[in-house]
Design brief:
disordered N terminus; eight-stranded mixed β-sheet; Neuraminidase; five-stranded antiparallel β-sheet; about 20% helix
Length: about 750
Amino acid sequence: MRCLWSLILLSLLSFAHAQTQTPRPNKQLTIEAIFSPGGITGRAPEAIRWSPDQTRFSYILRDDSGEHGELWSVDATIGEKKLLVTADRLALLAPSVEKLKDDREKDRITRYHVAPYQWARDSKHLLFAPHGQLWLYDLATGTAVQISAAPEPSRDPKFSPDGKTLAYVREHNLYVQSVAGNSLKQLTKDKDLNLLNGEVDWVYAEELSVRSNYFWSPDGRKIAFLQMDETHVPTYPITDWMPVHPKVDEEKYPKAGDSNPVVRLGIVDSSGGKLKWLSLRAKSEDEKDIYIPRFGWLDPNTLWAEILNRTQDQMDLYFVDAGSGKSRKVLTESIPDGWVNVNDDFTVLASKGQFLWTSWRDGHNHIYLYSYDRQSPLSSEAKLERQVTSGDFETLGVQAVNQASDIVYFNCNKDDPRQQQIYSVKLDGTGLQRVSREDGFHDPTFDDNGKHYVDNYSSQLLPPRFSACDPHGTCRSFFESRSVDEFGLFPIKQMEFKAEDGTILYGYLLRSSSAPAETKVPLIVYIYGGPAGQTVTDKWADDERLFHQLLAQHGFAIFSVDNHGTPGRDRKFQTAIRHQYGAIELRDQLSALDQLLAANPQLDPQRVAIWGWSNGGSMTLYSLTHSDRFRAGVSVAPVTDWHNYDSIYTERYLGLPAQNPKVYSDSSMTKVANKLHGALLLAHGTEDDNVHFQNSIQMTDALIRAGKQFRFMPYPNKTHGIEGPEYRTHLFHMIEDHFEHELK
C-alpha cells in the first residue's frame, strides 16, 4: 500500500510539473473561436480518392468558410502536388455543403461521407454530381460536359469496369447510360415509393454503415442490387416549424420491435431485361426478418452475401450462382452471448481462391484466412486455413492486401487500447510488424494494391496532419493543421482505474495547475459510455475537447473514463452490457470517480457535474436519476426511452422488446423522472432524424409531472449534431453558464 501511494504521489508531482511547463497562451481560447467556420485549426483535406491507375491520389482543400476550395492531386511516388480543378470551377462542380439550407441533407452528405466526385476508369476524367446532376470533367482540357439531363437527382453513380457506361439511382430505380450520353436504360421500373432499388434507407446507412446497395459484375455484364421494401416500416413526422404553415416530412424509421424493411437480392443484365430474384435461405427459414448488410461479386459468375438474423447474434455467408440463382451457405459466424459486428473486412483474394474474415471467436477481434474452390465456389463450404493475427489486442479494420507479396495491412490497438496504429502481417501469420511510427491515431486510405497510403495522423494535442506514405515507413507531409501552441493547451493526464471485477478502465484528467493548493476544484465528468465510441483516445477530438480546455482555463477539472461496453476492448468487456442499459456503465463510472477523488484531494467531491451527447446524454440522465453524486448535468440529444430508438442499434444490445420487456422498462429515464438529482440542462434539435425530438418532449413531460425544475433548450430545425457556428456557440455558452452557476 505504501508503494502504491508513493506511485500516486510521484504521478501527481510529475503531472503538476508537466503543467507548469505549459506555455502561457498568446491567443485566448473562446467558444466563438472554437466554433467559428474552420475552427482554430482550419479545414482538413476532404474526399481523398485514389486514381484507378494507382499513381496518385486527389483531395479537396477548402478555406475556413468552406465555400472556396480547390481539387489537388499528389504523386504517390515523389509527393509532387498538382492543381487539378481551380476554385472557380470547383464552386460549380462540387459546391460547398455550407451553402445548403436543409440541415438534414447537409447532415446526410457529411455524416455518410457522400463523395462530391470520383475518378473515371481512364484516370483522365473526373465525375462530379452537383445537386444530383452528372458532369464529366476532362483533366487535359479543363472542360466539363453534363451527361445527365433529367431534373431529378441521380445518386450513387458508378462506372462500369470498362469505363464506358455509368449506373446510378434515380427516384428509387436503377438506370444505366453510356458515358458518351447516346443511350439510357431504366433497369428497374417500380413506381411504388416504398420500394428502393439499389438505394440505401436510413437505418441501414446509420446502423450498418451501408453506403451502396448495387454493384457491377467484374465483366460489366450484370448488376446485383438490393431491393428494400419499406411498406410496413412506420414513419416519424419531422416538422419544419419555421414557415407560417409548418411542413412535415414523414421519415421511414423502424423503432425497436417495429417492422424492418423487407430485403431481397436481385440481378439484372446491364443491357436491360428481366429481373432475377435470389432466394438465399431454405424455404423453411424466414426470409422477411433478416438483414443483408453486405454483398458483392466473388467472380463474374458468383455473388457473395452476408445474412444477419434479427437478433444479430448469427451471420451466414452465402455464395450464389448468378446464372441459376442457386445458393450455398459457406460459413457461419455465431456469438450467442453477444452480437456479430458488421464491417467491411471481408476481402476476396480472387486469384488465390481465398478471402479474409474477421471474428471475435477467440475473445478478441482478429483476422482469419479461408479458402474456397475457385472453379466451383458452391461445391463445398469455405475452409479455414489459419488465424492470421492473434494476441491481446483488437484488429480495427482490414485496410489493404498486397497480393504480390501476400501482406495484409490493417488497423489495430496492439500497443495501447487508446491508440490506432497501422500494422502489417503476412497471409501465413508471420511477420507481424508496426507500419506507422508516431504514437497516437492513424487513419489510412490505401491504394488498391497496398503499395501506398494517405495517413491522417493526430494525437491528443496535435491536430490532423496528412502525409503520403509507403508501407516501408517513408512519409511526406502534404497538409498540416494550424498550430494550437499559442492557445496554451493543458496536457491531458492518462489514467488507469479498476472496475469492481478488476478490469482496467482507461480515463483522463484535464485541469489547470494554477489554483492554490488549498483551493477545491469543481469537477466535470464527460461521458459517452456506449458501444459506438470511446472518449479516452489519443486522438485530436476537436470541438468538445477544445471546449474542455476552455473549461480547464476557467478553473474546472474535466474527467472522462470508458466503462464496460465501450469499443476497442475484448469481447467480454464489450458484451458485458448486453440486455441491460445503464447499471454496469454507471457502476464503472462511479468506481473510477471514487478512485480519482481519492488520488486527487484537490478535486471537490461536493461539486461534481456530468454531461454528454447522444448516448452520453442518455447516460447523463441515467446518472442523475440513479445516483446522487452529481450536482448538475447537461444532456444533449438523449434517448430517454429505448422504445423510441431504431431497431438495429437497440435490439443489438437490448434484444427484442417483446422478449425482454423488463430490460426496456428498467432502462427508461421517463419512468424515474421523480428521482432526478441535481440541476439539469436538456437540449435537443427539433429536426433530429437520429435521436428524435420526441425523446426530450417525453422527458420534459415526465419531469413536469414529477414536479422537477429543469432547463430545456430546443434548437429549431437542427439535427443530431446541432451544427452551425451560431447554434453551437449558443449551446456551448449555455453549457458553460450552467456549470459556472451550479458549481461555482
